[in-house]
Amino acid sequence: MNIITCRDIVKRFGNFTALNHVSIEIPQGEIFGMLGPNGAGKTTMIRIMNQITVPDSGQVLFNGRPIQPDDVYRIGYLPEERGLYRKMKVGEQALYLARLKGMSSADALRELKIWFERFEIQGWWNKKVEELSKGMAQKVQFITTILHRPKLLILDEPFSGFDPVNVELIRREILRMKEAGTTIILSTHNMESVEELCDRIALINKSNLVVTGSVDEVRRRHGEHQIELIYQGQTPAPMPYLDGITLLQDEAFKNQRRARLQLNPNLTSREAMATLLAGWDVQPLEIRELIPSMKDIFIKLVKEGGR
Length: 307
Fold this sequence. Notes:
The chain folds into two domains: about 1-220, Rossmann fold, CATH 3.40.50; about 225-290, Alpha-Beta Plaits (2-Layer Sandwich), CATH 3.30.70. It has nine helices and 14 strands. The radius of gyration is 25 Å and the shape is elongated. With about 300 residues, it is an alpha/beta fold. The mean pLDDT is about 90. It has helices spanning about 40-50, 90-100, 105-120, 135-145, 165-180, 190-195, 215-220, 270-280, 295-305, and strands at about 1-15, 15-25, 30-35, 55-60, 65, 75-80, 150-155, 185, 200-205, 210-215, 225-230, 245-255, 255-265, 285-290.
């Protein structure tokens, strides 16, 4: 079942169209990557899901029904623009934000104690926010975002400003929450994080949905049907005619040879290997399909203007 279904969403600001008939489905219990260059429309979509703004047309469903104002208590949202009241004490502000999400003071205090100890910031309870480093303030805001145990967690650039140790801390918490059944929308420009964490993605560019699907499906869909062959032997010169296979590159590689081959789209890697062995005196050591990274796909689609 989908926790969020966005149907034909249109949002305009004056003469500018931020979202142009965008439809997205986000299954329960998965990590969903919301991708796009700056100004593409992804933050507008996130704000519509979170009821910060409303679409001009289209519909958002939450657990299969039209989203309601009270659903905000089931959603946690960490915006890219961090915002804490600088003159308030850390603990006082954390309690205040927890109460806004419907938690009692007793429940909030108990949960905050656990999270502050887990993130090793218990000594900052009575400090003012203005005394915190950027990373420390982001830890506090992350905690207040997840404290009420939301069913849907929306994280906009959650790793921004963190050192590698704290990036790993946040990454572990994201995976732990997924294991507990939380659905997570991850908006980030870090494509390595997308490949590591996300089950599915949607790429929005110039207000339009460009591509959506599972990470593996999207990567394979945008592959160029090439394989890399590590082998022993000599490349014939000229290269013999091999039906459905074109040699793109061949070079020395660790006392062996490495070839990159373009396959006919109707030819599988197994069929290509059989053709190679029949027509080329070569001892194969390793063969793998060359699948583009999410970073390569992102750059390609954005440069192409989303075609």
